[in-house]
Amino acid sequence: MSTALFDHALRLQQLHPDTPLPRDGEPFPDEAAHPDRQPARTREGPRRKGAGAAAVLDAHFADADATPADLVDAFHDVYVPIHRNDHIAAAALRAGRKRVRRTGRWLVRHSTDRCSVTVGLALLATDHDDRDIPLIQTIGLLSEHFGALAAEALQRRRDGGPALLWLAQRTAGWGRVYVIEAMCRRGVHGSSRDWLLRHACDGDFLAGYYAGKVAIAAQLHPAIVDPDADEALIDHTGRILSTMADCSGMGSTLEHYPSAAAVLTAHAGHLGRLAPTVHRYVTAATIADHLAKRPPERNGCTPEQRDGLVRQYLAVLDRQDWCDTARAGLAPDDGFTVWFVAETAARLRLRAFSGTGADPRAE
Q1: Is the domain of 324 the same as that of 227?
Q2: Which DSSP string corresponds to 30-53?
Q3: How many structural domains are present in the chain?
Q4: Mean pLDDT of the chain
Q5: Which of 198, 176, 185 lies closest to 21, judged by CA?
Q6: Are 172 and 161 in contact (CB under 8 A)?
Q7: Which partner from 77, 247, 281, 311 sits 20 to 30 angstroms from 203, CA to CA?
Q8: Which residues, other chains included, contact 48 with Cβ-Cβ below 8 Å and sequence gap of 6+?
Q9: Which domain holds residue 230?
């Protein structure tokens, strides 16, 4: 007997209750039935994507005797988008709300095929019943495929904030992007804000899509200028800043972040009172390197602000305890790559950067 994708997600969640699922839950139980979806995808132009799935739904809802189980294998020959789709949403609005909700719930909970589960989740994403939250959260753990629609569905629900936080703590990769972007769109406060300010950027380059959104939605500026900012906030601020410094083409950069100079200044100031770690050294060196090699306006600073910030970071990087920690913590086989970025580039380029033409440590 085939396994429902919901049961697959639930079993994996029980094995990994507090972390993202290994390989995002793949392979799914229906893997053999989905070797390649590209042929169906190309039959619809950009404006028509999802129209085929919507037509299937229209025919289904027009038949009063049809049951949700009839839809399990009904979408094999049409393209089913994994993001919100206007055609599918319109089909849901043309049908009765109770039947749409009942169909969505059944497909998400019982379908053994990813296409019909996706459609079921899309139907739930047009509704706002809080009773569906546990169902949506669980299927959302298979986040690369279902994360976008799960985030959309949770965002619409009154109690969706804590549910989005729960899912964000258990997703990685693209799924994390979808969920955190939904959190930022919804508005954050309380525990969601605390988590975003300290844990949102997990080191994946995909954080470039949402780092700037987190900085604004979670109000990073007032948090980091607090003289009593905690170490987790300071470390994560460094990760946000280093991500924004090098995410052009993905998301908001320092150039377009109104509080860039103030947040950079606060971060550099806090570093001086922290114990050195390899992570802090590399993060500070990366930020300072970006500041030094790019025009000030590209970093959201005036020339005077940029020059002062480089001096602040270099003053910390040049401290003997920080240098010793970095040397001891970096593996020998990383010497040319990591150490070159963290020390050689951060020192030699900074000492000769065009802002002053002199050793920044001289003052």
Answers
A1: yes
A2: TGGG-S--HHHHHTS-TTTTTHHH
A3: 2
A4: 89
A5: 176
A6: no
A7: 311
A8: 87
A9: 193-358
